[in-house]
Write a structure and sequence with these properties.
With 415 residues, the protein is of the alpha/beta class. It has two domains: 175 residues, Periplasmic binding protein-like II (D-Maltodextrin-Binding Protein, domain 2, 3-Layer(aba) Sandwich); 202 residues, D-Maltodextrin-Binding Protein, domain 2 (3-Layer(aba) Sandwich), CATH 3.40.190. 54% of the residues lie in helices and 14% in strands. The strands form four sheets. Strands 2-1-3-13-6 form a five-stranded mixed β-sheet. Helix 2 packs across helix 15 and helix 10 packs across helix 19. It is globular. The protein binds beta-D-galactopyranose (GAL). The site of beta-D-galactopyranose has 12 residues, from loops.
Length: 415
């Protein structure tokens, strides 16, 4: 055989070898799941990744709501050293795509049939210019109220169905020396209250106008004044030490009988579950007063990185996240419901089944709404501006009318 033929043969063999050699999948995952329930849930993903031959490097950044995690992400990307997989939310997925930072996941999406498995509304959030650029982990409901079952029984109080009922219940609890509302004083937690209060006081159309369309008339309306009035009421129902408290410590207050209620998304249920508590027995769940459903989808995006092992890791992680096994096991721990359609919910508790039912109903009647507080409704610059006003109002004595004016000004300035 001539030398030329030999060389050609060798080069075909080596290129074949290169394309068939299997890179060991690796990921470095940036997320903010550090509370007891969150850590238990993320461990489900770590274990499944490892069981499929992957190596996981964890990059947890503490801080509910993810603000600190997003600051850490920006620093890593600016340093030219993006993590391979990152927990992101709604519109921020698009913002990172516009920076050219995200990998194209269409190959896995096609192989796994994501278009057939994911509801259209959820698929849309995870596509950038029509191509999958991220994957959904779950659907959290934000407009939930959690109650300590025995405290409420002692006070002869049912889960309130209107804000007036809530205020009456809270006044009664206060007169009995019980803290009505477990709350952590951090801006994103104040914004979480605001989400539910605004939906309950203003209704579905008002929520859409004010929080999704940022309509200045709605933002500056008398209805908004009423929303801030109810926020002021809630401020009167929290204990003196709420400032700076983490959300999971506020959940623990409800768990331990130190507070009667918490208004928080169903990641709070992940805390109850992790502590071995069951709904109906130890605690009660009910949507906050008013109609509609505020959704908050957790997603992972894969950042553009070099290296076969990293890219293999991204593909494996994306595939596992949308897989049925993971969607069930993870969401049982996390308090949320699967993003994937048709997942069997028989192992889920009644709060989760209620969430799933209400989501289907609200999707059909147009009241399925993105959570403003959890970055699903508007881009970062606007949510930051609105959150500042909400938290300033909650932590000062300014009037509802002043806060409403400040809200309009903040949104105008952010434009
Ligand atoms: C939310 C996130 C949840 C939960 C919560 C508190 O933004 O969607 O998964 O982690 O923050 O950390």
């Amino acid at each position: 055989m001539s030398l030329k033929k030999l060389l050609i043969g060798a080069s075909i063999a080596s290129s074949l070898f290169a394309s068939t050699a299997i890179a060991e999948p690796k990921v470095e995952v940036l997320h903010w799941w550090t509370s007891g329930g969150e850590a238990a849930a993320v461990k489900v993903l770590m274990d499944e990744f490892a069981a499929n031959g992957g190596t996981w490097t964890d990059m947890p950044v503490a801080g509910g709501g993810g603000e600190a995690a997003m600051t850490a992400l920006r620093a890593r990307v600016l340093g030219g050293n993006a993590p391979t997989a990152v927990q992101l939310k709604g519109p921020s997925i698009q913002e990172w795509h516009e920076e050219g930072a995200l990998s194209d996941l269409s190959e896995v999406a096609k192989a796994e049939g994501w278009d057939k498995i994911l509801p259209d509304a959820i698929a849309k959030i995870h596509k950038c210019d029509g191509v999958y650029c991220s994957v959904p982990v779950n659907v959290h409901r934000v407009d939930w109220m959690w109650g300590n079952a025995s405290l409420l029984a002692k006070a002869d109080i049912k889960m309130p169905t209107t804000w007036a009922e809530f205020n009456d219940a809270a006044d009664k609890l206060k007169s009995m020396g019980i803290t009505p509302l477990g709350h952590g004083g951090q801006p994103w937690q104040d914004a979480t209250l605001f989400d539910s209060v605004l939906l309950g006081v203003g209704g579905v159309e008002f929520y859409k106008k004010a929080m999704v369309e940022l309509d200045l008339d709605a933002l500056g309306s008398d209805t908004m004044v009423k929303v801030f009035d109810q926020m002021r009421k809630l401020r009167g129902y929290v204990d003196d030490n709420f400032s700076g408290r983490d959300w999971n410590l506020a959940t623990a207050m409800v768990m331990n009988g130190e507070a009667a209620f918490q208004i928080m998304g169903d990641w709070a249920k992940g805390e109850f579950t992790n502590a071995g508590k069951t709904p109906g027995n130890d605690y009660l769940c009910a949507p906050t007063p008013g109609g509609g459903y505020l959704y908050n989808v957790d997603s992972f995006a894969m950042f553009k990185v070099d290296g076969d092992e990293n890219q293999a890791g991204q593909k494996l992680l994306a595939k596992l996240i949308v897989g049925e096994k993971f969607q069930t096991a993870f969401n049982l721990s996390k308090g949320s419901i699967p993003a994937r359609m048709g997942t069997d919910l028989s192992d889920f508790d009644y709060c989760s089944r209620r969430s799933s039912y209400d989501m289907a109903v609200s999707s059909a009647n147009g009241s399925l709404l993105p959570s403003f507080a959890h970055g699903m409704a508007v881009r970062g610059v606007f949510s930051g501006a609105v959150t500042d006003v909400v938290t300033n109002h909650f932590n000062s004595d300014i009037s509802s009318a002043e806060a409403t004016k400040a809200l309009v000004a903040a949104v105008k300035n952010a434009e």
